[in-house]
């Protein structure tokens, strides 16, 4: 674990290294249009086709706030246990870059929409809490494209897209904790419908601010802070923090003047191919951006009754729901995590169980069968179009022994493609299990007669007895074409083998 090196790793007696991480997370809000104009938010449009005078920064154009973006920000702030500002206002953050057509970004500086919150998550079975310093609204910049040799192209479709920037306090001390935090935060954003939060589409980007505290001979030394920019992978967040801890410790060992305040903070980029961070530039401070109130946008009042309404409308959050599923339905931690990862899927699961389906079997079918079918079609389980009543019937006939486990996937796939009940499908497809003692005995007798060597091993006291018995079960199921009830097969087979042993 990088966050707590052994003393001898630094070199001196009693030395230690502690990693300190704060995160800045940019979440693209799930609105149809941009933050201050009516242009569509799209990732599949031709370059520079979703633009207008406002997001291109033409002189005389005036911004108009997207109400939905503000409401989504309030919901996110409440889910992060933040205080919602009674008045929030807009500021211009000035800097020059090719993908920022106005040469300033509309953001929020000293009056963010939400601040002073916290977020709890689990790492290795232990609950951790990270304080949330602030969550503020801002518009995204465009995108530089480096696909053409010898030049850089600019696509401004993304310019003006609404972002929620979440800033934590430096409460994270290990790469593993950062990984868990980012994973859980993404789940929360998706669960609440605040964002699709797709890493591949750039809808959630992480910027860890990392430095280390080195203790030597009772004296603490803090290295300069490195902000690793625009990471779009949980694994890369973890790897970047681990690398920075090692790099900064080595830099301090080589130069004891490499300390906070004496050397500048840095912006660095993560090179995932090489597994290293590369220096980009010295890190800017707030004064470098020359913040001032935007003259074209009025402050926004957020009445307390509006905040109360949003708070009352918040659904059960993922962490609490997973814990409840463990206790109430007896699911495994991994099954609960998979089901709760989609709010609609969790609701469908609870509806199925409320119809009388066994929760444990239902959970396994959701994770192993329905999730697989949904992933293959790039939809959620709820979007497969199979009703809770039909899913509950599939669970019931499975528990009742009418079908075996291998038949469940075939029937479920047929349920997606048609409207027939699972019982009717099992009958039509010849998958109903035979619970007839006479038929089962006939299959067992035939298997025994065709496999004399295996029978001899099964009734012996050798180490091969267990494997031989399993082989015989498989032969019986094969003879029955999968229709025999495995439990009944086991009972009849054991009885026959006892007879042959003379017991």
The tally of structural domains comes to 3
What multimeric state do the chains show?
single chain
Contiguous low-pLDDT stretches (5 residues minimum) are 1-14
Q: How far is the N terminus from the C terminus?
A: 58 Å
Look at the helices and sheets and give the structural class. alpha+beta
The dominant shape is elongated
> What is the count of helical runs?
15
Residue-averaged pLDDT, rounded? Answer: 91
Strand content: 15-25%
Radius of gyration: 30 Å
How many strands? 18
Helix content: 25-40%
Largest sheet: 11 strands, mixed
Descriptive notes:
The protein has three domains: 4-291, no CATH class; 317-428, no CATH class; 437-501, Arc Repressor Mutant, subunit A, CATH 1.10.10.410. α8 (359-377) crosses α10 (405-417). It is built from 15 helices and 18 strands. It is elongated. It starts with a strand and ends with a helix. By secondary structure, it is α+β, with helices and mostly antiparallel strands. The strands form four sheets. Strands 1, 2, 3, 7, 8, 11, 12, 13, 14, 15 and 16 form an eleven-stranded mixed β-sheet that branches. A three-stranded antiparallel β-sheet has the order 6-5-17, with no helix packed on it. Strands 4-18 form a two-stranded antiparallel ribbon.
């Amino acid at each position: 674990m990088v966050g707590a090196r052994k003393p001898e790793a630094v070199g001196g007696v009693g030395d230690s290294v502690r990693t300190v991480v704060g995160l800045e997370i940019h979440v693209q809000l799930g609105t149809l249009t941009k933050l201050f104009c009516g242009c569509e938010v799209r990732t599949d449009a031709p370059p520079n086709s979703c633009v207008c005078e406002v997001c291109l920064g033409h002189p005389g154009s005036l911004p108009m706030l997207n109400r939905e973006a503000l409401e989504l920000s309030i919901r996110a702030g409440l889910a992060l246990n933040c205080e919602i500002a009674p008045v929030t206002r807009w500021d211009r953050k000035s800097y020059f870059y090719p993908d920022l057509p106005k040469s300033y970004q509309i953001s929020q500086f000293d009056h963010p929409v939400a601040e002073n919150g916290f977020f709890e998550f689990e790492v290795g079975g232990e609950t951790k809490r990270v304080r949330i310093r602030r969550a503020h609204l801002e518009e995204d910049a465009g995108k530089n494209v480096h696909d053409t040799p010898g030049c850089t192209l600019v696509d401004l479709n993304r310019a003006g897209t609404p972002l929620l920037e979440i800033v934590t306090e430096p409460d994270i001390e290990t790469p593993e904790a950062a990984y868990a935090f980012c994973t859980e935060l993404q789940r929360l954003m998706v669960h609440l419908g605040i964002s699709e939060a797709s890493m591949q589409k750039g809808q959630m980007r992480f910027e860890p601010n990392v430095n280390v505290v080195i203790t030597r001979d009772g004296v603490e030394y803090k290295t300069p802070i490195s902000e690793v920019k625009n990471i779009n992978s949980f694994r890369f967040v973890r790897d970047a923090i681990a690398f920075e801890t090692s790099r900064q410790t080595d830099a301090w060992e080589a130069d004891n003047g490499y300390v906070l305040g004496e050397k500048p903070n840095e912006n660095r980029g993560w090179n995932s191919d090489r597994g290293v961070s590369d220096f980009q530039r010295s890190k800017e401070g707030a004064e470098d951006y020359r913040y001032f109130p935007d003259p074209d946008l009025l402050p926004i009042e957020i009445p307390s009754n509006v905040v109360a309404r949003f708070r009352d409308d918040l659904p059960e959050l993922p962490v609490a729901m997973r814990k409840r599923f463990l206790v109430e339905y007896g699911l495994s931690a991994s099954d609960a995590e998979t089901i709760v990862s989609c709010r609609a899927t969790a609701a469908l699961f609870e509806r199925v169980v409320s119809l009388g389906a066994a929760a444990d079997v239902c959970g396994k079918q959701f994770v192993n069968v329905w999730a697989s079918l949904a992933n293959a079609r790039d939809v959620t389980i709820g979007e497969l179009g199979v009703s809770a009543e039909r899913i509950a019937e599939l669970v019931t006939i499975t528990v009742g022994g009418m079908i075996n486990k291998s038949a469940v996937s075939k029937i479920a796939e047929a349920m997606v493609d048609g409207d027939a009940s699972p019982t009717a499908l099992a009958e039509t497809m010849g998958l109903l299990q035979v619970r007839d003692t006479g038929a089962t005995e006939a299959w067992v007798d035939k298997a025994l007669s065709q496999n004399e060597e295996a029978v001899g091993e099964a009734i012996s006291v050798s180490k091969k007895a267990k494997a031989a018995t399993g082989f015989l079960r498989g032969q019986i199921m094969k003879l029955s074409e999968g229709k025999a009830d495995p439990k009944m097969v086991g009972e009849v087979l054991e009885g026959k083998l006892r007879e042959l042993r003379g017991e």
